[in-house]
Amino acid sequence: MDRASRTCRADPDEAEVRLPSFLQPGVNPLELVLRAVVIYAGLLLALRLFGKREVGQFTLYDLVFVLLVANALQPAMTGPDTSLTGGLVLTGALVGTNFLVGRLDRMPRFHRIFTPAPAVIVRNGQYMTDVMKKEGVDQEEVEMSMREHGITDMKEVQMAVLEPDGTISIVPTGVAMTRTKHRIRYHHRAG
Fold first, then answer.
1. Is residue 170 a contact partner of residue 145, using CB atoms and an 8 Å limit?
2. What is the pLDDT of residues 57-108, one digit of tens each?
3. Which of 12, 81, 92, 155 is the most exposed place for a label (fewest CB within 10 A)?
């Protein structure tokens, strides 16, 4: 071996430690984080624009839609990266973003942006057809909710409300309605 080739070599003590190929990210980890946060925000906004019914009650075709969207968005998040490290970075970014959004949701101003207001869809036994059309609710859904509440005649409905989570609440006639300022988000049962 000649002297020139020996001087170009790295010192054996300074040998570069290489990770196995499945651990080497193909994309800068910060780019993966940015991609994940942008996709999360875009999907959150899209779901918010769809309305309460789309998010509140999934049908079979909604499930297929969500699975296809997830599959379609995966390349946008990962880019050319197929490494295990990249997957862990993306998972951490998504979990962190979801945690942050959950914390922000506790702030009233932020909460109002992503949580739609309840919508009255029946008042004094009369369908509010304009509101129902805007919210994507049909009479069959209201009637199903009435049956769930033990009500068989529309005349017995003082008010029906499409809640932010997509459920329909029924207030029967003859029931005094009270308004509270305290909003209960979660009810945990003891036991």
1. yes
2. 666 777 787 778 888 888 888 888 888 888 889 889 989 998 998 898 888 8
3. 12
